[in-house]
Amino acid sequence: MQAAGLLMEDGKRELIDGEIIDLPSESDSHMSLRVALNRSLILQIADDLRVASRGTLRLSETDWPEPDFYVRQASTRPGDIHGADVLLVIEISDTTLAHDLGGKADLYRRHGVCEYWVIDVNARRLHVHRADGAWPSPAVPLTDIIEPALIPGLRLRIADFLPD
After folding, report:
1. In sequence order, which residues have a C-beta less than 8 Å from that of residue 57 and are 6 or more positions away?
2. Of 4, 18, 133, 141, which one is least surrounded by beta carbons within 10 A?
3. How much is the pTM?
4. Extended beta strands in 8-100, E state
5. In sequence order, what DSSP letters do the residues of 117-131 get, joined into one string?
6. At a CB cut-off of 8 Å and minimum separation 6, what does 147 contact?
7. Which H or E element spans position 140?
8. 3-state secondary structure of 100
9. What is the pLDDT of residue 64?
10. What was the pLDDT predicted at 2?
């Protein structure tokens, strides 16, 4: 749509159920957390995995969300990804919690995403959704160490990346 001139290149948007949704600008705290998490994810994951930060995840012709992160096998090309190919999706939520826990969680579940985390910055809780368990499971404090089910060796304590 950008190539056709229908959308401007600036601004952040996603396509959900065929509807273009404008996303709010990233706050300083959101960006600081995203940058710190990006570094930790890249340093901890195996060489056969890739981290996409703020990349479009093309789940179908009508669903192109823009998560803060997603992790996939390095051998899977971005254009060939299906929901079940996505090992982990992470959303940092400071102003979009209802959307991230509602419509986006349902979208990722419908497309078979293996695991979806929503970091609720304001309440300092992590909402974990796993395809092989509860969707969602009870929220945990950001001070807990969390390990994704399908990414061996990755351990995160989200509170370590937040400003005091």
Report:
1. 64, 65, 66, 67, 70, 81, 86, 89
2. 4
3. 0.86
4. 13-16, 19-22, 49-53, 69-73, 86-93
5. EEEETTTTEEEEEET
6. 154, 155, 156
7. strand 140-141
8. helix
9. 87
10. 41
The CA-to-CA distance between both ends of the chain, in Å, stands at: 41
Can you say whether residue 17 is alpha, beta or left, with left for phi > 0 and alpha for psi between -120 and 50 degrees? left
Which tokens is 134 given?
């509860």
How is residue 106 written in tokens?
A: 């349902």
- How far is it, in rounded angstroms, from Cα 151 to Cα 161? 20
Alpha helices in 95-160 (DSSP H): 97-101, 103-110
Q: Decide if pLDDT at 54 tops 90.
A: no
- Taking the C-alpha atoms of residue 157 and residue 134, their distance in angstroms, rounded to an integer, is 21
CA distance 42 to 127: 22
